[in-house]
Automatic annotation (TrEMBL):
InterPro entries: AsnC-type_HTH_dom, Dimeric_a/b-barrel, Tscrpt_reg_AsnC-like, Tscrpt_reg_AsnC/Lrp_C, WH-like_DNA-bd_sf, WH_DNA-bd_sf. One of its GO terms (cellular component) is cytosol. This is Lrp/AsnC family transcriptional regulator. SMART domains: HTH_ASNC. It comes from Alicyclobacillus acidoterrestris (strain ATCC 49025 / DSM 3922 / CIP 106132 / NCIMB 13137 / GD3B). GO terms for molecular function: sequence-specific DNA binding. One of its GO terms (biological process) is response to amino acid. PANTHER family: LEUCINE-RESPONSIVE REGULATORY PROTEIN, TRANSCRIPTIONAL REGULATOR AZLB.
Length: 153
């Protein structure tokens, strides 16, 4: 059994590792690699997906689709408006990621846009217009040096 993950055993971990590398890998290929029946892999993947442990998605390279500007934005929010601010951010298509953080800033947000101008307009007209935003700190990503989706080793 894998420490820290209730209900996840070594077979599940092996399946997850293969799917992290290639989400389109067939159940037959995985079954052959780990020495179980194809039906076992199919059932395990179904259980992992329904329990929320595993999602199988296509990952888009943002730069290849024209989203060349990526910014991490720290946001200080008035405490009484934090929940409504989070709801508003979650509805914005430019916002890819929202996390509650500790310290001076309450939220960390990742935003993607096509240009400096588009990003500036988003920050000035939309982000700063959200009720409760007290202060922001915009951190531009200059070059992505590592971006992996392997969470289980």
């Amino acid at each position: 059994m894998f420490d820290g993950l209730d209900g996840i055993d070594e077979v599940d971990l092996k399946i997850i590792k293969f799917l992290q590398e290639d989400g389109r890998m067939s159940y037959r290929e995985i079954a052959d690699q780990i020495g179980v029946a194809e039906r076992t892999v199919r059932l395990r993947v179904s259980q992992l997906r329904s329990s929320g442990v595993l999602q199988i998605v296509g990952v888009v390279n943002p730069i290849k689709v024209g989203l060349k500007m990526i910014a991490a934005i720290q946001m200080a929010i008035a405490p009484e408006q934090l929940d409504s601010c989070i709801r508003t951010l979650n509805e914005m298509p430019e916002v890819r990621f929202v996390a509650l953080t500790s310290g001076e800033y309450h939220l960390m947000v990742e935003v993607m846009s096509r240009s400096h101008e588009e990003l500036g307009e988003f920050i000035q007209k939309r982000l700063n217009g959200i009720a409760g935003v007290q202060k922001t700190n915009v951190i531009m990503e200059l070059k992505i040096l590592k971006n992996q989706f392997r969470f289980v080793r």
